[in-house]
Design brief:
Elements lengths: L1 H27 L14 H10 L6 H15 L13 H36 L4 H15 L2 H15 L17 H27 L2 H8 L4 H13 L1 H16 L2 H6 L5 H11 L2 H29 L2 H5 L1
Helix pairs in contact: 1-13, 4-5, 4-7, 4-10, 4-13, 5-7, 6-7, 7-9, 7-10, 10-13, 12-13
């Protein structure tokens, strides 16, 4: 297990380095700069600002200097859009909200998707199975930027049951609509993956033997089938959590949530290089950690996977 963890960490470092390099050169290829929008700015003032943030230096120095600062001092630089505010402060403040939204949405997706998949597999080819899979297919087909405005229109404006803007940690009513919108697609994926995994296990000989001995079906499902049937869902949960946090950009825009999405969009519009780089590396780290978590969860559910890792 330690060897697996070491290999995953080495792979993660390499992936982050490649991600940093690709992001840097793609940003350098853009035809505009961080002060392009300031058309009334005198050229000498613009040159001074470029010198302050180091953008007047050769490209290889601009490439190495931030990388060295990140490795040695965990310094991501400052924002050119927010008047020199440290990028690490922006990430700490905004990521808290995005992380809370992601945790709640992933928790709801797991609590809804996995039981739905188990029930659907148990009642294979029944009306329950068809209904669950139909709802899951709808969840897969409808994107969040369609579901969000619909929920906001009915539950917020028309029926006035829930707030549709903002995010308050002390006010759970502000969580409901964004969490429900963000979790629907992932719950649908989990339902389909769990159903497929459970059907594969339910077709094994030991299940038929247990049924022939008169073991209750509920006991067979929970005690004998659930662990093996959850392997496909476990492989999905880790990367899905990273995706649900990084994929909340649209949800944050729809419901006006002060998370990373707002800063990411504004940074792209103004070519705020340090903020873009910080958010990209943060999302990349989340995906790496999510994959590592999935590997360990699969190893726990399926001991045979440990020998093949």
């Amino acid at each position: 297990m330690i060897r697996i963890l070491f290999h995953r960490l080495i792979q993660g470092v390499v992936v982050l380095f490649v991600l940093y390099s690709l992001t840097f050169f793609m940003l350098k290829a853009l035809p505009y700069g961080p002060f392009q929008a300031d058309k009334a700015m005198p050229e000498h003032v613009k040159a001074k600002l470029m010198e302050q943030v180091g953008l007047n230096q050769p490209w290889y120095i601009q490439y190495i200097r931030p990388l060295k600062a990140m490795l040695m001092h965990a310094d991501l630089g400052v924002s050119t859009r927010l008047e020199g505010r440290p990028v690490i402060d922006i990430l700490q403040q905004a990521f808290t909200v995005s992380f809370q939204l992601g945790v709640l949405a992933m928790s709801l997706a797991v609590m809804v998707g996995i039981p739905a998949g188990v029930v659907s597999a148990w009642r294979k080819n029944s009306m329950t199975d068809f209904t669950v899979m139909a709802v899951a297919m709808i969840g897969l087909c409808l994107p969040s930027f369609v579901i969000g405005p619909i929920l906001a229109e009915f539950f917020g404006r028309k029926w006035q049951l829930l707030p549709v803007m903002g995010w308050e940690t002390s006010s759970p009513s502000t969580w409901v609509l964004p969490v429900a919108t963000l979790s629907l697609v992932y719950a649908a994926y989990l339902a389909r993956l769990t159903r497929a995994g459970m059907l594969d296990v339910l077709s094994q000989d030991f299940v038929r033997t247990a049924q022939a001995k008169g073991v209750p079906m509920s006991k067979i499902l929970i005690k004998h089938c659930l662990r093996g049937g959850l392997i496909p869902a476990a492989a999905f949960i880790g990367p899905a959590f990273a995706g649900i946090v990084s994929g909340s950009l649209v949800i944050e825009a729809v419901f006006q949530i002060p998370g990373l999405g707002r800063h990411f969009i504004k940074a792209i519009e103004t070519d705020d290089i340090n903020v873009i780089m910080g958010i990209v590396l943060l999302y990349g780290s989340l995906i790496i950690l999510g994959n590592m978590a999935s590997d360990f969860l699969i190893s726990w559910l399926n001991p045979r996977a440990r020998s093949t890792s």
